[in-house]
Amino acid sequence: MPDPPNQLVISTQSALSASNAGLFVAPRYGLHPERELASFELIFVRSGVLRLWEDQNRFEISPGQTLILWPGRRHGPSAPYEPKTSFYWLHFELDSAAPPAGIVLPQVAEVPRALRLVELFRRFLDDQENNELEPNYASTLVKLMLLEIAAQDQSKQAKRGQLPARKLAATAQVTIGKRFREPITTSEIARTLHCNPDYLGRVYRETFGHSLTTGIHQARMHHAKNLLLLSSLNVKEISAACGYGNPDYFRRMFRRFFDMQPNQFRSLHPRQHTNAA
């Protein structure tokens, strides 16, 4: 078992085998099963809040967070499912000997760029549903998931120690994340943060490698991909939900970012059937 007991240490050389996975959508009322598994379980909450306990620990997992449940430890619900709760789950086994060097993965982690993890889950589920899930490929996908979670969580922790200018850029990014659905401009963001627009634009570019305007479009495009993958909204509705008043402009921006039209992207990613946990 890894040491400390609530952290995994993994590397590309870790001996790992994947079992099965699914997308669970909670009923209007229900409880997570109380049980003890022989394998690890990775949970990634997509919507709602999942409240579980494991031994003496209690967890409240929000959208964009992951939880790893340990083999040989009993776990169960600390509250009923909230309405519209959904989460991906995956069972896997890991060599009990931690690698001499690797990435530390906490039991609960933040995944700010959720779509990157969603895409890996969807690849796993697509092949599983079509009976095409080759064991070595499945194990590789799970390693990629775990490494992605660890990298994003470490990146988030590192940003907490940024210099003031970088903190300003990070605050601008948070503002974009909260308001990209609105017709916001770079000047409005600067006014919200009580700073000079040119200075904000400069420190933002130094921090993220692109302009504030590009940052707004990126947030909108990532949201558009989520809606295309996970909803049945049409292009006009998605355009409005992403802050674009003109669907034709939305299509042009989507093509600029992804080199295809929104409907073409959706056709490449058919919607998943859901699975029980």
Write the layout of secondary structure elements.
Blueprint: E1 7-10, E2 16-25, E3 35-36, E4 40-47, E5 50-54, E6 57-61, E7 65-69, E8 74-77, E9 86-94, E10 103-106, E11 108-110, H1 114-129, H2 135-159, H3 164-179, H4 186-192, H5 197-208, H6 212-230, H7 235-241, H8 247-258, H9 262-268
Antiparallel strand pairs: 1-10, 2-9, 3-8, 4-7, 4-9, 5-6, 5-8, 7-11
Helix pairs in contact: 1-2, 3-5, 3-6, 6-9
Describe the structure.
The structure is a single chain. This protein has 277 residues and is an alpha+beta fold. It folds into 2 domains: 7-159, Regulatory protein AraC (Jelly Rolls), CATH 2.60.120; 164-268, Homeodomain-like (Arc Repressor Mutant, subunit A, Orthogonal Bundle). Helices cover 44% and strands 21% of the residues. The protein is built from 9 helices and 11 strands. It has helices spanning 114-129, 135-159, 164-179, 186-192, 197-208, 212-230, 235-241, 247-258, 262-268; strands spanning 7-10, 16-25, 35-36, 40-47, 50-54, 57-61, 65-69, 74-77, 86-94, 103-106, 108-110. It has a 5-stranded antiparallel beta sheet, with helices on one face. It has a 4-stranded antiparallel beta sheet with strand order 3-8-5-6, with no helix packed on it. Strands 1-10 form a two-stranded antiparallel sheet. A hairpin with a 2-residue loop joins β5 and β6 (57-61). It is globular and about 55 Å long. It starts with 6 loop residues before the first strand and ends in a 9-residue tail after the last helix. Residues 272-277 have low confidence and may be disordered.
